[in-house]
Amino acid sequence: MSSDIQSVDPGTLTEIYRQMSRIREVDKAIQGGLSSGKFMFTYWPMTGQEAIPASIAPLINEKDHMVTIYRGIHDQVAKGVPLKGLFAEALGREGGVNKGKGGSPHISDPASGSMLTTAIVGAGAPIANGLALAEKMRGTDRVTIVNFGDGATSIGAVHEAMNLAGVWKLPVIFMCQNNQIGEYTAIPDYTASENFTDRAEALGFRGVQLNGNDPVAFHNGMKEIIASVRAGNGPVFVEAHTLRLGPHAGVGWSHLLKGDELTDAKENWPVPALRKRLLEAGICSEDQLAKIDSEAAQETAEAVAWAMDSKVTGEDEMLLDVYGDPSVVPYRGQRAKRAAEPEYTGETKEMAMFEAVQSALDTSMQLDDQVYCLGEDIGDDPGGVFKCFKGMQSKWGERIRPTPIAEQAIIGAATGSALVGMRPVAEIMFADFVGVCLDQITNHAAKQRYMSGATTNVPMTVRMICGGGIGGFGAQHSQSTEALLLHQPGLKIVYPSTPTEAKGLLMSCIFDEDPCIQFESMMLTYALREEVPLGDYRIPLGVAKVKREGTDITLVTYGWQVMQCLQAAEELAKDGINAEVLDLRTLLPLDYDRILSSAEKTGRALVVHAAVEFCGLGSEIATTINEELFTKLKAPATRFGAAYAPIAYSKTIETAQVPNVASIVARVREMFK
């Protein structure tokens, strides 16, 4: 190490060593516990990387945000996550910082600013943007640091996040802890790049290389960088050179470092190296350093003992923290009764669905300054591809945020800002595009409340357009993806069939404490107009509505298929079949009570949806009706969805493959034979 040790205040250097000693003791305790069989959990050692978070610790506080990766226990220790709660969490105990429900790869401790730990490489970067965006919009000087390894630089989510951070000049530091190995693969075997900082510079912001094994040089470099980011100068990418001494996972030394290479690496190991420098420079005595080491060992031992005494998290926690309200969780026999919305008697205005959506957004932004919108092309002009944002950027300024074409960055930013109390509304232009950002929606937004043991939640809303039924949009702009998302615990999903419901459901989603998704059918965006309530109008989630009373069969449906079913019911009436049409409106929470009550009354049920029939929501509902009402039905409940094929570009094929008035009538007639 060649940096001038006198360039850092002695007290700061001592504090850096104290943090490094604490990290080392935690590492030793975990590896010892795993080796002896005392512990049993997955561990990704960070041995050799201790100087990076320890050198940053004196420069930040608990109000600054941190995001890290599964190999981030050193980051968590230095950020201030309590060791007792840290060990208990890794051991799956009730006393864990997340009640033992996140475990070693998913630690969240908002009290210390450790906001999220992801087990998916690179996925934290878009979420860190959201944390930084929230602070920028609130006018604070807080910084966000997102830690990841060199291997994450190959991930698209990191590139999308860096691009967005550069465009918006976000107060975020992309901390690449370059430990020379991407899991099991050395750098030259997975990239031709000579460095990683050039990637930041290509996106228009600063990249800096620092020696992450020299706490003096690294601290001095980070001091200037953090000050710059605090001052509003935008993001910085830091490539912190270090070396991982341990394996990818487990205990022991790295299998990739052989002979002299491992010997040299141990000699340059920051923990003993800094200890030696402090002694040589006369900054600390052996007694002082021994005391620091002893205190770190004692703190760790006490934490381990406390964690081991903590009760193992039991199965009574299984369905808690999936949602804020446990009754939302669907399970066999679940039949929660939810009150319908009161009859609206206030002022109305005739609107199409796109105008009703804008009314919901505008009203919500008036009610709460933490509501903001983000998505592609939503600024003036054009005001959104579907015109839902026309004129809103001029009115609301930075609270209407047009984004790059980058769905992972959009959902990540929404998730991160929601973690600290904002209420983002993100638009994903077509429901088909959900595949591009599925990780951010299902692995992060949907699971965060559960993984964190409810220490954090994600009150964000995502709007998606379904292009099916119009004709001519083809296979990648037409599918209805609700079944895919319904299989992901933690999400709430609505699917309005009228402009009034589009507004009422959207406002309820925006002010809900869980992540919500609103599907909007393009078949209804412009075509259907009606009188829509003005002002604050909400339809409670989980409440279905009978759109047509009937006595002979229940047509359970949602979205634009409600219109098809209502028309089909009129045709069936000519045959003497009186069909009841039940509009689900909310797909999760599902209104089992109204579904079963209607089916019990009519004795027959057909679930109709535009999505593919195979493994669709119709199968779930029909099965539930059959199980619950087996002895009371006149015929088995069944379902009717789209044919098992991508939506065709040909209008003729699309009309035939998706339920329509004629095919619904034909299917019902079959049920009466």
UniProtKB/TrEMBL annotation:
SMART domains reported for this sequence: Transket_pyr
Q: Name one GO molecular function term.
A: oxidoreductase activity, acting on the aldehyde or oxo group of donors, disulfide as acceptor
- Oxidoreductase as UniProt keyword: yes
Which cofactors does the annotated protein need, by name? Answer: thiamine diphosphate
Q: Does the keyword Oxidoreductase apply?
A: yes
By its UniProt entry, which InterPro entries does this protein fall under? Answer: DH_E1, THDP-binding, Transketo_C/PFOR_II, Transketolase-like_Pyr-bd, Transketolase_C
What keywords would UniProt list here? Oxidoreductase, Thiamine pyrophosphate
Stored CDD domains: TPP_E1_PDC_ADC_BCADC (cd02000), TPP_PYR_E1-PDHc-beta_like (cd07036)
Q: Where does the Transketolase-like pyrimidine-binding domain start and stop, copy by copy?
A: 351-527
Query: Which is a Pfam family this sequence falls into?
Result: Transket_pyr
Q: Which domain of life is it from?
A: Bacteria
Q: State what this protein does.
A: The branched-chain alpha-keto dehydrogenase complex catalyzes the overall conversion of alpha-keto acids to acyl-CoA and CO(2). It contains multiple copies of three enzymatic components: branched-chain alpha-keto acid decarboxylase (E1), lipoamide acyltransferase (E2) and lipoamide dehydrogenase (E3).
**Protein name in UniProt:** 2-oxoisovalerate dehydrogenase subunit beta
